[in-house]
Amino acid sequence: MNFVIRYVRPLACLLLLTVLAACSSTKDVRRVPTELTPIKTVLEVREAWKASVGKSGRYLFAPAAVGDYVYAAGANGSVVKIDATNGKEVWRTKVGADLSAGVGSDGTLTAVGTLKGDVFVLGGDGKVLWKANAPGEIVTPPAVSQGFVLVRTIDGRITAFNAQTGEQKWVYVNRAVPLNLRTAAGMTFAGNSAVLAGFPGGSLAAINLQSGDAYWQTPVSYPRGVTEVERINDVAGAPTLVGSQTCAVTFQGQIGCFDVLSGRALWEQPFSSYGGLAQDDRAVASTDDWSVVSLYDSTTGEPLWQNTQLKSRDVSAPAIVGRAVVVGDYKGFVHFLSRDTGEFVARMRTGGVITAQPVIAGNTLVVQTRDGDLYGFRPQ
């Protein structure tokens, strides 16, 4: 069946959207970033190191953390492995092609992708081990684990390759939707038998790693509205997995958690995000499409707090670091919010725009800017 898929760029059209207003609306939607005010620093944070990998260009490049190491890539084809304990470079490679997606790594193999659908897999020494192609544009970091490299193209198709040889094993195709976001939609391994992935249209699936068939597929939310723009309802970011619970969030839909074995909904709350979410054993955090940061009880879904003081500052998806929820913003600030109250407890500054979700490598919080700089921060 032939079909045409149209995409919306989150930093262009999506910043003019509200849940009930289309980009073509005549209503003038002005987003004025909230001015920052001085805070009382309660949490001491220091900048431990800084490194560089290459600018992001028009793509979203997020670092990947495995143990004490962090992996990062830039649009110019550079890929680096950095020891997060000291910021020293372990290896650096240029794959010989412009990249459009950040890195996926299991600590041994590292994968990156291009807009032409090429995927490069690097070995433990940083040298290219093999190259393959998944027809379509890759803007989501590949996922590497359990002997598989999973590559996701912009149409929602997931292609599985043998991690050692590059042999294609299977392809998972989800149903097409008329309009969807052009943004990274990550994948999360669930043990050694499944991968979790969300899709345009608002569904979440657990896919059998061996066969490529779905164990289950369930809606996180349903499309609403009259126009195609109003009905955009994509799962944003990567699903989380803590214990037997997986959580996901959609644009113009809901945030919710599900039983990972059955897909049964545990709780749901109205929400809209195109960034994603973070989870620990007690709570789920997310940033909405107005840059409001919210925290929910992961067991009951009860709202715990909401911080509106970063509204319209284009904040990143959050990370939960100890007793803090951390987000970056369009001015390069890294904000640390109290895990208990949502109040600011620390603020650091980088030299560039932050759109990528921060990651945790050992005891270091790593942030990547659009200018390609990597910062390692240590809460004290």
From TrEMBL:
SMART domains to which the protein is assigned, alphabetical: PQQ
Membrane disposition: Lipid-anchor
Keywords, sorted A to Z: Cell outer membrane, Lipoprotein, Membrane, Palmitate, Signal
Gene Ontology cellular-component annotations: cell outer membrane
Coiled-coil ranges (or none): none
InterPro entries with a match to the protein in the record: BamB, PQQ_b-propeller_rpt, PQQ_rpt_dom, Quinoprotein_ADH-like_sf, WD40/YVTN_repeat-like_dom_sf
Signal peptide: 1-21
GO-annotated biological processes: Gram-negative-bacterium-type cell outer membrane assembly; protein insertion into membrane
Annotated NCBIfam families: assembly_YfgL
PANTHER family: CELL SURFACE PROTEIN, OUTER MEMBRANE PROTEIN ASSEMBLY FACTOR BAMB
Subunit structure: Part of the Bam complex.
Similarity annotation: Belongs to the BamB family.
Free-text function comment from the UniProt entry: Part of the outer membrane protein assembly complex, which is involved in assembly and insertion of beta-barrel proteins into the outer membrane.
Protein name from the UniProt record: Outer membrane protein assembly factor BamB
Organism: Mycetohabitans endofungorum
